Amino acid sequence: MTAATPKPWFLYLLECAGGRIYTGITVDVEARYAAHVAGKGARFTRAYPPSRVLLSLTFADRSAASRAEYRVKQLSASQKRALIAGKFVCDFGDVGVDAAPGLKGRAAPDE
């Protein structure tokens, strides 16, 4: 018998009331977004209801997603918006993100 393949975890960013950005992790982005919209999510999203999912990144496990969440939460709002727009690349190092690796804290190169 083989071991079950672990479910991937997701780091997600939501646009909330007042232009605020909420960052979280989950195994099911759609279900978690629905919980936030229904007022069953984090205290932050109860105070500032979300309007849409801005970004979702896939990670191998909860630990990797948590480390990436910490790194994203250290970014300023303008850096988060640049990350969403693809103009800022956050180096997630060894956390196993299924996205192209980038330069830590630098603007993405113009194409």
UniProtKB/TrEMBL annotation:
The organism's place on the tree of life at top rank: Bacteria
SUPFAM superfamilies: GIY-YIG endonuclease
Pfam families xrefs: GIY-YIG (PF01541)
InterPro entries: GIY-YIG_endonuc, GIY-YIG_endonuc_sf, UPF0213_domain
Domain GIY-YIG: 7-82
Family membership noted in the UniProt record: Belongs to the UPF0213 family.
Xref: PANTHER family: UPF0213 PROTEIN YHBQ
The protein, known as: GIY-YIG nuclease family protein
Annotated organism of origin: Pandoraea apista
